[in-house]
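Hi P.,

Sorry for the delay on this. The queue was packed all week, but I finally got your sequence through. Input first:
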Amino acid sequence: MIALPSGARIWLACGVTDLRNGFDGLAGLVQRQLAEDAFSGQLFVFRGRRGDRIKIIWWDGDGLCLFAKRLELGRFIWPRAASGAVHLSAAQLSMLLEGIDWRRAQRTHTPQLAV
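Then the structure:
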């Protein structure tokens, strides 16, 4: 995974996206549907109709980067909303990319008092 700059915000575009879109099409969706600046350094994640493919668009300061992933088994977990965007942490994005349900991540240990 390419290291993201600290403080970069990550957005999931709710609903289904036509993943035939490339750099310009996805940047246009960011601007028209999400009312965000595609050249802000934030990451925007889109999911296709079948749910097994995603694309991420990101401005790294020099140009747009487009990342794509297809799961061989299973589907990417996505919000039920038909429009809008959901903010994710870097850890949640990592889980999403691994096919893990990022919405219900649970810690395996609850810290106790050290007294």
